[in-house]
Amino acid sequence: MTRKQRRLTLIGSGMAVLAIAVALMLNALRDSIVFFNSPSDVVEKHVAAGTRIRLGGLVKTGSLVRGDNLSVRFEVTDGKNGIPVNYQGVLPDLFREGQGVVAEGALNARGTFTADSILAKHDETYMPKEVAEALKRSGHWKDDYGPRAGAAAGGGGK
Questions:
Q1: How does pLDDT run across 129-158, given as a tens digit for each residue?
Q2: 0.85 cut: is pTM over it?
Q3: CA 142 remoteness from chain centre
Q4: CA 109 to the chain's CA centroid
Q5: What is the predicted pLDDT for the residue at 18?
Q6: Eight-class DSSP state of 153
Q7: pLDDT the model gives residue 128
Q8: DSSP state of 37
């Protein structure tokens, strides 16, 4: 084997090892890359109890129940499915029924989501692409969400 062939073999081997490492990392992080899972995603994926996820959707109107010691119960829905959520702590100022929310936590064995943090959507003039696409898929997209929300969903614009 000539010197040039050894060098090409070494470079090719290095590239193959690098490609395998990147593929393994992306495979391991596949579920973590998603900003949130909608209730329908959770049902379809059959998420196991105790698995930490982010649950996103709309707070179902009429489902908010405030208890003692800052405990709150509500349901997150995407229009097709809903998941009950328990949370204890201070809610964001913009949290309310009918509003978009992302809860981070885990499902318990009874199918109730126990959240340890809650994020409320700030306003409807901007929305991440993933949230806009999930609302469009579930049929809850409103045309009055504004041009920036439409552009974020892939509609172009500024």
A1: 777 777 777 776 665 544 444 444 444 443
A2: no
A3: 20
A4: 21
A5: 96
A6: I
A7: 63
A8: B
